Amino acid sequence: MGDKPVFSCRCHVFKIDPNTKKTWNPTSDGPIQVSFFFDPSKKAYRIVSIDGGKLVINSTVVAGMTFSRTAQKFGQWSDQRANTVYGVGFSNEDDLTKFADQFEEAKVCVNRDALSPVGPPPPIEEDAPRRILSPGLPENRSNGSFDTEPVKLRASESEGADRSRASEHSLDDAMKGLSLENDRLKTSLNQSQGNLKKWEVELHTLRTNNSRLQSALHENSRNIEEWKTQLLQYREENTKLRSRNEELEIEIDNLGHMRNGTHSPKTAKKHSKSNLKSEEVERVKQILEKVTAELVEVKEENTRLKTQLRQSEERSGVSKQVYENSMVCQIQADMELRLRELVDMNRKLLTYCRKS
User: Fold this and answer.
1) Do 347 and 247 touch, CB atoms closer than 8 A?
2) Helices (H), the chain
3) pTM for this structure?
4) Inter-residue contact 27 to 13 (CB < 8 Å)
5) Which of 24, 167, 235, 338 has an alpha carbon 20 to 30 Å from 31's alpha carbon atom?
6) Long-range contacts, 292-296 (Cβ 8 Å, 24+)
7) Cα separation, 2 vs 48, whole angstroms
8) Residue 58's closest CA among 26, 40, 36?
9) Contact (Cβ atoms closer than 8 angstroms) between residue 13 and residue 26
């Protein structure tokens, strides 16, 4: 026969801090089951508490052990064998009183057993409020007094055996429940570890993608700055071409005036003017060819910039880049308009040169 439960309650369990010996360390997050067990073979009482498969209290009641009520709902006792001090806190004072009475009864029973052994404790009564008195002890009256006469056994041996088997069966069920709960917690732990590995992989992937996007963003920013510089250069070249075009128009107008004006009767002078006109026309043609070549280069550069701009828009969806790209497009549109004006002017110059 094993240990038999004689008393059970729920309370908060604490242990004294082994370093400071002044502060209490809670053993669980909330109230847990604490039970008194009696071992008939050893005539010994044990206070046991298990929380989630972990043994929290395993204290054997011995002679000389004292339970002290240090507060209205808190009590403590010292266990020299476990080299610690246990503390229990209850939700009301009545539960603390019941626990203290049971502790005192167990201690008295242990002291009596040292002198004359007694039989096993009585079984748990169905109508008893989770409290059973130890064998050979006086019944706890409501007024706090005790009878001096010993308590007589009310159950027969067969009933005691049946109830002891029922108690053992309940303990087995409790152990099975704890085992199932432990297996469930292990399964949850394994699943959590698997999920943690997946989250670590996803986090690493997100960090890698973020680094790549940042690199692409910096690269696009550098490219946009280069394009801005090139656009400024093209604007300057366009201004120079316009100035040169205006000079050519002035020279062409001068040539027209020279052709429409009066000529000198000297033939040599006519020939010199004709040669000068031919030279000016050739020089104008060369300038026009040079301008045409520069226009072709500008168109090619404009096409290249459009391609780069389209690629940059596909790679980046940042609003800032979209705004800058729109500005680049607007500048390119202005350049195209100016280039068309230059082309028209070039055509006019060619037409004029052919007519002349």
Assistant:
1) no
2) 93-115, 157-260, 267-315, 319-355
3) 0.35
4) yes
5) 167
6) 292/346, 294/237, 294/241, 295/339, 295/342, 295/343, 295/346
7) 14
8) 36
9) yes
Strand, coil or helix: what is 133? Answer: coil
Q: What's the N-to-C CA distance of the chain in angstroms?
A: 133
Per-residue model confidence as pLDDT tens for the chain (356 residues)? 578 899 999 999 999 998 988 899 999 889 999 999 998 888 889 999 998 889 999 999 998 899 999 999 999 999 998 899 999 999 999 999 999 999 999 999 888 876 654 444 444 433 333 333 333 333 333 333 333 233 333 333 445 455 556 656 666 777 777 878 788 888 889 888 889 988 889 898 999 898 888 888 888 888 888 888 888 888 888 888 888 888 887 877 777 666 666 544 444 455 565 666 677 777 777 877 887 888 788 788 878 888 887 877 677 665 566 677 778 888 888 888 888 888 888 888 888 777 76
Helix or strand or coil: residue 53? coil
> For residue 216, what are its two tokens?
């692409």
Structure tokens at 62: 């011995």
3-class secondary-structure state, position 48: strand
24's tokens: 């209490």
Amino acid identity at 21: K
